[in-house]
Amino acid sequence: MARSLRLYFRLLSIQLRSQMTFRISFWIDMLTTGLLNVSYFASTYLVLERFGNIAGWTIAELAFIYGMAEISFGLMDMIFSGFDPDWFSNFVRQGALDQLLLRPVNLFAQLFGSRFLLRRLGRILQGALVLAYAFANLPVAWTAPKLAYLPLVIISQIVAMGALFMMGSTLIIWTIQPIEAVNIITYGGVEMMSYPASIYSTWLRGLFTYLVPLVFLNYYPALFFLDRPDPLGFPVFAPFLAPAAAGVMLWLALRFWHFGLTHYQSTGT
To answer: What is the pTM for the complete model shown?
Structure first.
């Protein structure tokens, strides 16, 4: 375990040094990534300036759930980028996964260290700015339990969305090429998490509640933080299911991953 961690941090330092080689390009890439995502929230802000709220949610309350989702997804996309299905398909298609499997080194350490997108800091920063706006404009009493639970919710979101990346990468073992349906769940899932679940149709809420439980990772914790009532009628402990939901998703992802590796056949390249 200690050897794998040392290897991971060594690979990480190589990644960081290589990405900072062309610093102007790096800063431009990071800023454009952040500005692009800011434009999404800005469009929502302009709409709510005209209509006041969406399903009873004010702009500051929307900023809260949007900011949490953006920070979490940005961190996940930076840390789990080696498991991005689009990226992982190159490993399988070009035979690079064979090389990783033949090395006497932990495969997870190699995959996590194979790609670390520092430019995702742009998305994380804009999410933090939106969340800071929410904090400044929400009349919420931040008690000790809420302050303690907030980082746990963000970590749970990172783990859960990373698990979705791992499941998507496992499918690549059989399909070789990326599956667009995976992007609908991953990137579509974070878009869904950025807005109140109550605004969606019943079938869509059901998909992201019972099949992919993203509702318990952002929406329900937000109800607890903002002291809002639950319009969907779930039990009173629903806002505190984020760590459990993330744990179950990670466990399933690891099981599916190991199942996929036992059935892996090289592409021959």
So the answer is: 0.89
